[in-house]
Design goal:
Blueprint: E1 7-12, H1 14-18, H2 20-29, E2 33-38, H3 61-64, E3 74-78, H4 81-86, H5 102-117, E4 121-125, H6 149-162, E5 166-168, H7 181-187, H8 197-211
Parallel strand pairs: 1-2, 1-3, 3-4, 4-5
Helix pairs in contact: 2-8, 5-6
Amino acid sequence: MNLHNKTISFLGDSITDFNYYISEIVKSLQPRQWFNYGMWGTRIAPQLQPTINRPYKDYDFISRIKDINSKSDVVFVFGGTNDYDHGDVPLGKLGDKTVKTFYGALWTLIKKINTQCNNPIIIFITPMQHVNENNRLGDGTKTVPSGTLNDYVIAIIETASKNQCHCVNLYRNKLLNPNIAAYGKKYFYEDLEHPTAAGHKLIAQDIIDNVLKIKE
């Protein structure tokens, strides 16, 4: 897919908020114009209970769709890590249409983006691998066990496919794995969650390679 004459928007969390991988994509694919709607700490799904002391985390992706440029031809959605880490809605199942599950929130997100932007091309970007990613309590703050990080990745892939959206599976990228010491040191900061500049370049290249394969 050629982005040269297209308006593109990026909806995401802190990794998108940093803007680094976006700048690499823009430099390579040269869209007509682009917009960054990344916001630190946010989740795809609405929270059932308000987040104490950090209310900005509750400004979820769905609530921010109204801010996206309505002329967007392509919308990238890069999220899910924070839903796994500290979101309190259950994972749910494919076919859910309620924002009270992660699957249902994904479905709602797609429908609202299509309405806001008149059926743009939607490209999901899955979370990368994560330290402690098999803990069903996420980062340890959940009171009710949910899925592993891979379960959230599968939810994104399945929902995207069912709704004719595209998906870039960063979870498969073996270099973007902080559990391997050499990669963690090179591609991630000390928190082992946020990518370094080199990590952002890997993310961008993975996205660029996949975008170029999309047939319009």
